[in-house]
Amino acid sequence: AEQIKKHAWFADLKWDDVSQKKLVPPFVPNLMSPTDLTHFDESFIAMTPRIS
Questions:
Q1: What spatial distance separates the first Cα and last Cα of the chain, rounded to whole Å?
Q2: pLDDT 10s per residue in the chain (52 long)?
Q3: Is residue 1 part of a domain?
Q4: What's the gap between Cα 23 and its chain centre?
Q5: I want to staple 22 with a disulfide (CB 3.0 to 4.6 A). Which of 16, 17, 26, 42 is the partner?
Q6: Is-contact 32 25, C-beta < 8 A?
Q7: Is 29 part of a structural domain of the chain?
Q8: Helices marked H in 1-52 — which ranges?
Q9: Would you say residue 14 lies in a domain?
Q10: What is the domain extent for residue 37?
Q11: Which stretch of DSSP H or E encloses residue 34?
């Protein structure tokens, strides 16, 4: 995990804030129910589940 945390993409990220859940997400979807799939692409929803 340290190698990922040190990657340039995450240079401005405050990892302590992540672990303490202090970050505000940039987008919070408005869901109608816990099983609402409105924000998922139809092609993804149509895929057959695969046990991995």
A1: 23
A2: 899 999 999 999 999 999 999 999 999 999 999 999 999 999 999 999 999 8
A3: no
A4: 13
A5: 17
A6: no
A7: yes
A8: 2-5, 15-19, 42-45
A9: no
A10: 25-52
A11: none
* Residue 34 in tokens: 């816990």
| 3 token code pair | 């190698």
Residue given tokens 């303490």 in the structure block: 20
Rounded-to-integer distance, Cα 15 and Cα 9, Å: 13
Here the tokens at position 22 are 């202090």
Number of domains in the chain: 1
Q: What is the DSSP letter of 40?
A: S
29 with 39: CB under 8 angstroms? Answer: yes
Copy the structure tokens of residue 28: 């919070």
Instruction: Tell me whether residue 4 is in a domain.
Output: no
